[in-house]
Amino acid sequence: MCSRFLQKKLILFVKVNRILRLYKGQNCMNIDIIAVGKLKEKYLKEGIKEYQKRLSPYCKLRIIEVGEQKAPENLSEKEKAMVLKQEGDYILQKLRPSSFVIPLCIEGKSISSEGMAEKLSELAVSGRPYITFIIGGSLGLSDQVKARADLPLSFSKFTFPHQLMRLVIVEQIYRWFKIMRGEPYHK
Known about the structure:
The chain is α/β, with parallel strands linked by helices. The protein has one domain (2-180): Alpha/beta knot, CATH 3.40.1280. Helix content is 49%, strand content 17%. It has six helices and four strands. A four-stranded parallel sheet has the order 2-1-4-3. It starts with a helix and ends in a 7-residue tail after the last helix.
């Protein structure tokens, strides 16, 4: 009876400590962005670098690039499946086993910025400090990667260039942390 009581107090203490660290700006979250292909455009690199700098008080952010397979316009369905599988294998090799996985895909769930800020806060408190966002290549994501998803996320029914989505996701992560901490950020 006494040990169960102490165990519950310890769990509560750990959760409160995580919340305090999160809201004091101590970066207790580790966020990976796994993206297919190399980023080429200078303006995108500069934008991402700016948001990485802004995010440094809130989290440890890593951007991991994996190989992009050649995908000419006239691929057969079998060839498309092979490209997706190969890129998917590269992605899955880079995933941390304990990470909460959020692939960006058109069939994912649409969530507001406030809703995602709340989700990140819940993950931080629940002891899931590793979060991985996945951005597929020009053909999207393989079924194997989607099967590993904890929360498939859609930004829109529109299709966005996968290179541009890197900048969009780092800006949104920054926005979510600002919302979580109740700090001002222009809309």
